[in-house]
UniProtKB/TrEMBL annotation:
It comes from Rummeliibacillus stabekisii. Residues 108-157 form the RNA polymerase sigma factor 70 region 4 type domain. Residues 17-83 form the RNA polymerase sigma-70 region domain. Transmembrane segments: none annotated. Belongs to the sigma-70 factor family. ECF subfamily. Pfam families: Sigma70_r2, Sigma70_r4_2. Residues 32-59 form a coiled coil. This is RNA polymerase subunit sigma-70. GO terms for molecular function: DNA binding; sigma factor activity. NCBIfam families: sigma70-ECF (TIGR02937). The keyword Cytoplasm does not apply. InterPro entries: RNA_pol_sigma-70-like, RNA_pol_sigma-70_dom, RNA_pol_sigma70_r2, RNA_pol_sigma70_r4_t2, RNA_pol_sigma_r2, RNA_pol_sigma_r3/r4-like, WH-like_DNA-bd_sf. Keywords: Coiled coil, Sigma factor, Transcription, Transcription regulation. GO terms for biological process: DNA-templated transcription initiation.
Amino acid sequence: MKRKKQLFYDDDLVEWIRQNKKQLYWLAYSYVKNEQDALDVVQDSIQKAMQNYQQLLNKEKLKSWFYRIVINTSLDFLKKFRRVQVTDDDTLLYLSSSTEDQYENLDLAGALERLPTKYREIVILRYFEDLKIEEVAYILNENSNTIKTRLYKALKILRIDMEQEEG
């Protein structure tokens, strides 16, 4: 019989999770593209973080460490449940009932979606999660220069894609 892993955490971790729950959800959602799956990924990530919190030696890296857990859990989820991603009813309702002109945002969202994963995740972490290059490198377990190069290439691809959408 498999024993459950004991939870090791403190109030700082719980408080940080509470303060950042929306960002964690959106990060997971950016990978799995489904509300319930994103919630499951966040829940699994919280459990993993609580089980391994004692291994985090530098508490100042909590955000990067936790984001790495969410990304890895999302990728594991996608590998385990490879399936066609269908837009859920809430998203369709939100997009169809908008009174504002959302074309630019939809174009950007579409262009981001077309980016290869290795570029998209860098753009999301750097610009949507407002992380520094070094933090992105830590989360993705890559060299900072590699992240800079991929970010530059991703922005170039996005610019070309957006220009083609306009034309």
